[in-house]
Structure formats: C-alpha cells, structure tokens
Amino acid sequence: MFSLKCFAIIIALYILTQLTPPLVAYVYVKFTNIKCVSYDKAFADFRYCKLKALSPNKVALFLHVQLFQLPVNNVSINLDVYRKANGYRPFLFNKTSDFCQFLRNPKRIPLGKILMDIIAMYSNINHTCPYNHDIIVKDFILTTQHVQLLPVPTGDYLLRISVGAYNEFKATVSAYVQRVED
Asked: Which PANTHER family match (predicted)?
C-alpha cells in the first residue's frame, strides 16, 4: 500500500521533473559552399566569391560584384530554396520579384524581408535603386538567431539567388547552408 510519505515523494519528483529545463541541443547554421556565375561579363563580374572558415561551426561569406554599366535602375531577383534529400529538391520557397519595388515595400514578401534584413547588415545593398556602385557582402556569418523565425528543420540546403537587370538574368549565386543539432 502507498503511504502518504511515498505519495509525497512521487509528487515531489514529478514537480522537479516539470521544473527542470529539458536538455537543449546546440543548434548551429553555417555556409558549406558557394558558387557564383556571371552570365554577362560586360555587365557585371565577380571579383571574389568565397567562404572563410573562422571555426568549425562558423564560416564567413565574402562577395564582391563589379558593375560595369552604371547606374542600374531595373533589378529582378529570383530566390529558390532547396533541401537535400537524394539530391537537392525544391523546398518552401521559389519567388521572383522586382527587387527595386521590393526594397520600397519589403513587407510584401515576408521571407524576403527576413533575408534582406539579415544581408543588409553585412552589405551595401541596403538602399533602393539605382545602384551606382559595386555590390559587396563582407563578413556575413549565419547564426541561429538569423534563422530562428524560419520553419527550417535540420539538414543541408541550397539558396539560389538569380539576379537580373533589364529583363535578362545576369548572375546566379548558389549558397549551400547546413543546419545541424548537436
């Protein structure tokens, strides 16, 4: 038979298990590769497109695009997201938009706004058109805080950004990203 003392111990153990925070897995997000392709080298070309490992779980992205036909007033952008599962498969998002219009009203595309807010901290594309200068992204390090608002499970991803100007795609940047729980 249960005594009052045994019952009190069971209740105390239950309360302790409910108050004790669960073990939290360490989650990190990092770049694993980047590929940049210019389709119209007379219009724009990449001076550099590289990653630099700062630690095993921290990788910085560096990108410099030289623009040769300035100013650029008409920019289109296509963002595709792929998840690796027997090759890269479309995942969550594929959107093409007038980038200049998007910068005037970024709330129209919520995922685009989240990504632009992150990239704007590390780049000089934080203003509306026209662009009269090279495009530079420097020391861009992904953190878990950057992707905590996104419904992204662990895995390997490809973010492909195709950039066009004057109704013709000029370049593609393919960033490979890994989200891991330890």
From this structure: DAEDALUS ON 3-RELATED, DAEDALUS ON 3-RELATED-RELATED
